[in-house]
Every structure is written in C-alpha cells, then in structure tokens.
Amino acid sequence: MKITLDADKCCAAGQCVLVAPEVFDQRDEDGIVVLLDAEPPAGQHDAVREAAAICPAAVIEVHE
Amino acid sequence: MTARPLAVVGASAAGLAAAEALRRLGWRGPLTLIGDEPHLPYDRPPLSKQLLHGAWEPERLLLRSKDQLAALALDLRLGTRATGLDAATRTLTLDNGETLPCAGVIIATGVAARTLPGAEGLTGVHTLRTLDDALALRARLTGTGHRLVIVGNGVLGCEAAAVARELGHDVTLVGVEPIPMAAAVGTEIGELLAEEHRAHGVTLRTAAVAGFDTSGGAVTGVRLAEGEADAREREGTRLPADTVLLAIGSTPAVGWLGDDPALDTTDGLRCDAYCAAAPGIYAAGDVARWEHPVHGRPVRFEHRMNASEQGMAAARNLLAELAAEEGDQSAFADAFEGAPPERRPFAPVPYFWSDQYAVKLQAYGLTAGADRIETTVLDRAGRRAVALYGRDGHAVGVLAAGLPPRQVRGLRALIAAPVPWEEARERVRAATATG
Question: What is the value of ipTM here, to two decimals?
C-alpha cells in the first residue's frame, strides 16, 4: 500500500489522525495533515482505508 | 441465481461513501448509483469557499478520479432522478420510466435549497447548493464592486459573505436572527463572528425579506419587512442589490418518496439507530433523521463528515440485514464475498467546521438546541474561543475557534458521550489552559 496526499485540499478536520494515528498527524500551526508513513505495514491498512473514506475533503489517496 | 442490484439514490458524499463501503465490505453483485445532477460525485463544502472564490475549478471538487470510480464497477446513472420507491418490494422508479427492483436501497438524496416567493426566474437571485448554482453565482459576481445582498445569516450565508468581501464586493448580510449563526453556535460565538464580518466591511441587518425590487426581469433590490426586529433600522427598508443570494436553509429531498405509509418523511427520512427506514431501505447523509443511540433522540445533520460516516454505516447495516434475511439466500451468498458485517447502531460524534476569513470554527457533538452554553473568549481580537453546549445537565457539544489541533482533538474526546456539566467545564478549562 502507498499513500499520497493532496494536502492543499485539507480542511484540518483531523479525522485521519483519530482513525490512524500512526500514519497521519496534523501540523501544529494550522492542523493540515502530515503523512508519517507513506507505506504503512499491513496491520494499518484497514485503518488507512477508513481514514481515506472518511476524510471530508477527499485528501487521502490509497494505492494498492 | 442472479442477485438483484443494490441501489444508492444520491451520488454526493453520502451516496458515494455508501457505494464504496458496499464494495469494500464484500458486495460483488450489481450496484447502481443514481444521481440527479449530471456531474461525477463532487464535494460541496468548497462551493461556498474555494470555488466561489475562484481559487479552485470544478475538477478540484471531484471526490474520486475516473479510475477510482471505474474500480467500483458501478451502474452509474447520472442526470437521473428517482421518482418513486415501493418500500415493500424495494422497487425504484426512475425519471426515464424504468422500474428497478432491488435487493436493498440506500437513500442519500440530501436536501434542496429553500427559496422565497417571487425569486423564481429573477435574474440575479441565486441559491447555493449545487455546483451549477455555485458556478452561476461566481459568473454573476465577475469583476468587483457588485452589490450583493445575502439573505440568511447561517453557516452558508456567513461563508459566502466572507468570500464576497475578499473578492471586493459590497456585502449586506440579512438575517431574521440578530446574531449570525446564533442558532448553530450560540450568541457569544455568533457575536465574535459578527465582529469579524463587520471588521471586513460586511453590513449586518436584522430583518425578514418581504420581496424583491425588479427591473426588466432582473433584481435591483431587496425589500425588508416592516416591523423588523431593530426599529432603528426601519428607515432603510430597501436594500439596493444587483445580486441576491438566498441562504435561508434547506429542505430534505423526500418528496419523491410520496406518501408510502411504510416511510416517515417528517423532516427527513426517519430511521432507527441502524439507519434503517424500513426492511432493506436505509438512509444516510443530510436526508436521514435517525435515532442517535447516545443522545437518545432523533437527529438529522447537514454536515459533511456525517455524510461519509453515515453512508458507510448504512452500507454495513444493509449488508448485515441482507445476510441475515429469511428466505432464499443463494442469490445474496453468490454476490457476496467474505464474512458478512455485523449490524451496529450508528453513534457518531458529530463534527462540523466553518471557514470565514482566517477564522476556523470546529465543533463536536450537538451545539444546536442547547439549553445552556458557556463561552470562554481566549483572545477577542484573535477570535480564539471555546464554547461548551449543555442539555439536561450534561455537556453534549463543544466548539473551538482558533485552537491548535491537539487541543481540538482533546475536546472531541471530552464530549464523545454526554458528560455531567460541571465535570465537562473543568475538563475544558484544563484542556485550554495550556494553549
């Protein structure tokens, strides 16, 4: 699995961090998403798919 | 035996999330996604922000690429309106006359913008719900110095006012409520927003709208109702305008469901805690009014986050129901791969945000309908504040303006379930004391 972000679209909702905190974080100054792990291990895949599906700005793209 | 299709009516955020979840959870049978707009699924929040501003073009709003949609193997019916549903047989009727007997249906038809009498067909009077609406308003506001009157000072009106000021237009925001967004966030946060709008040059008026002045089929002004709340403003009951945006709320798109006694369509499609409106019939997103298991009452949210979350929940619970349904199961089993999901009540922590100028509001839980609100302004000029919303002795919602993300996420944890009011107050104080 590879993750790419379109961070310019991020609305700083932070839902990805709630769902997959080992893969996503937010910048302190404005809450914009930060990718911690672009190729997360298998144990994270379900959480990442959920984060992509739930993101209210369609920022997260998952390539499998 | 060939499985009947699952159909999702509504191809916006909730409908798309439902369709994706049906596939992700294992539905391999036919899947029909019906949308009345001609566009591929797109995102609505940017309509009143980046799209209206001109910073983004429509392609930027697409929720999924063509490749991503193709991977879902949808029977995608765009520009198609569902005109009826027979709940007992789960049969849809479409506006091309086709009838579509389904194994299950998820209704995500959203809401439609309210309008005012006399607005129809009047050049310069706009609503803002769809991409076409937003593009039409954007085209109307080409150049600078338009005289724009926005009727309605809720979230949409406020966001559009901020963008229009940034574009250099003369903006008057008219609301029947004296304080913007007060119904959603309370008077003190609303007053903070009002100050921000005034600081950016928006004229705020409190009045109902009685009608429009016109010339040659185009709007030239807005007439305010006599007896408006602030009597001092009564002298100017006509606001000149070349453009009017009606942002006076919306109505759930349930008319097409008719009066099927199996469905309750009072203020949205009524669902149980599992998002089920009837056997095999589910709803999600702005149109769904469901029994929130934590708050113990029916709620309906027109929030972007809820659309995705509820779409996914409705998909899960529909598949769980079909897997458990009595009768010939071979058709379902043939079209399904993997272990059927478990039925789960839909119990989200509601979330919404609003961007106006550089101010970002983020709220969790229930902020509307509170019987007590405690607002702490941390920095008036910087528009930094936190507010706690209570009902029946418990804190049920929280809102942050201008707080760092870690603190905002901490506030979410605080009201994920209703907390006794005093305990929540202490925790909010502790959570925001270090920022």
Answer: 0.93
